[in-house]
From TrEMBL:
InterPro entries for the chain: DNA-bd_dom_put_sf, HTH_17, SinI_DNA-bd
SUPFAM superfamilies: Putative DNA-binding domain (SSF46955)
UniProt name for this protein: Helix-turn-helix domain-containing protein
Domain Helix-turn-helix: 1-48
GO molecular function, one term: DNA binding
């Protein structure tokens, strides 16, 4: 699982871009038990393609 910052680093985009993609429903993410966003690497790859 990746944090939005880790996903942004891998995708070479800003954290804001990742958060906007989540908010707009283009990138699937879920919140963990501490209410932090978690992104599956496969979902990040799907969003990038």
């Amino acid at each position: 699982m990746l944090t939005p910052q880790q996903a942004a680093s891998r995708a070479q985009v800003s954290r804001g871009t990742i958060m906007n993609a989540i908010k707009d429903g283009h990138l699937f993410a879920r919140r963990d038990n501490r209410n932090r966003w978690q992104i599956e690497p496969a979902d990040l790859l799907k969003w990038l393609s």
